[in-house]
Design brief:
The chain is α/β, with parallel strands linked by helices. The chain has one domain: 3-Layer(aba) Sandwich (Rossmann fold), CATH 3.40.50. About 40% of the residues lie in helices and about 15% in strands. The protein has eight helices and seven strands. The protein has helices at about 25-35, 60-70, 85-100, 120-150, 175-195, 220-230, 230-235, 245-260; strands at about 15-20, 35-45, 75-80, 105, 155-160, 200-210, 270. Strands 3-2-1-4-5-6-7 form a seven-stranded parallel sheet, with helices on both faces. It starts with 12 loop residues before the first strand and ends in a 7-residue tail after the last strand. About 50% of the residues are buried. Mean pLDDT is about 90; it is low at about 1-5.
């Protein structure tokens, strides 16, 4: 069978990835670079009040940059908080000045406070919603004008969660309410953006990982709280023996969505969760 498109690398493209210092963001950055993309790697490189585990650091972001450079591609590592639109726009512009206008956006930055049992913590609720939902909107605002200006279309992937498709595992805490609400909200952003930017040949999709083996889940706070108060509904999957998916499993879907094989795919939500949302 002859495919209507020719699979190939992402040469001469520029990708913006938020939350790039470690975890899924680093995995996406290195894989896209291996396919030929130059990378604008964005991360807050600081902790956030209300989030009970350490976030990525400048040393982590530097390591991501070195791994991208090892592929032979260019990288512009920039520090910015996705909650602050002006700061994010300035950081993205720094990357554009170095690498050129954008083709691909991976809005990956996100936080969680799984295991925090507080029900009335507005600081936790706001930290999660401001990062996971407002931060994604800010990322769209800071990047899509560059794609439009470049004039050859592009691909935007919004990283939601399996909790953006189901309320399973809800425990009444501010943390879980905020996480599920923010990740559901990403789907609304995706659908609205797919309609808004379709005339510019910009495809917008969301992906929905289950629990991923990254520092967001594998940290002392989450592990201790989940051990003390296990919630099987959070981790239960249809496929047996898959407690957590790996970052590269999510990256494989990202690579497909930004590549030529998905040239007519827009406005869809794709779970990468071993069947969590269909249980």
């Amino acid at each position: 069978m002859t495919l209507p498109w020719t699979p190939g690398p992402l040469d001469n493209s520029v990708a913006v990835i938020t939350g790039a210092a470690r975890g899924q963001g680093r995995s996406h950055a290195v894989a896209l670079a291996q396919q030929g993309a130059d990378i604008i790697a964005v991360d807050i490189c600081a902790d956030i009040d209300g989030i009970p585990y350490p976030l990525g650091t400048e040393a982590n972001l530097d390591k991501t940059a070195r791994l991208v450079e090892a592929t032979g591609r260019k990288v512009a590592p920039v520090v910015a908080d996705v909650r602050d639109l002006q700061q994010l726009e300035a950081a993205v512009q720094t990357g554009i000045d170095q690498l050129g206008d954008i083709d691909i956006v991976i809005a990956n930055a996100g936080v969680v406070a799984m295991g925090d049992a507080q029900t009335h913590s507005e600081s936790v609720f706001n930290a999660i919603v401001d990062t996971n939902l407002k931060g994604v909107w800010h990322t769209i605002l800071a990047t899509v004008p560059s794609i439009i200006r470049k004039g050859r279309g592009g691909s935007v992937v919004l990283v939601s969660s399996s909790q953006g498709l189901t309320g399973r595992g809800g425990d009444g805490s501010a943390a879980m309410f905020a996480y599920a609400a923010s990740k559901h909200g990403v789907v609304g952003l995706m659908r609205s953006a797919a309609n808004a930017y379709g005339p510019h040949q910009i495809r917008v999709n969301s992906i929905h990982p289950g629990g991923v083996a990254t520092p967001m889940i594998i940290n002392d706070f989450v592990i201790n709280r989940m051990t003390e108060n296990p919630n099987p509904a959070v981790t239960q999957t249809l496929l047996p023996g898959v407690p957590l998916v790996e970052p590269q499993d999510v990256t494989a879907v990202v690579l497909w969505l930004v590549g030529p094989g998905a040239r007519y795919v827009t406005g869809v939500s794709i779970p990468v969760d071993a069947g969590h949302v269909v249980m």
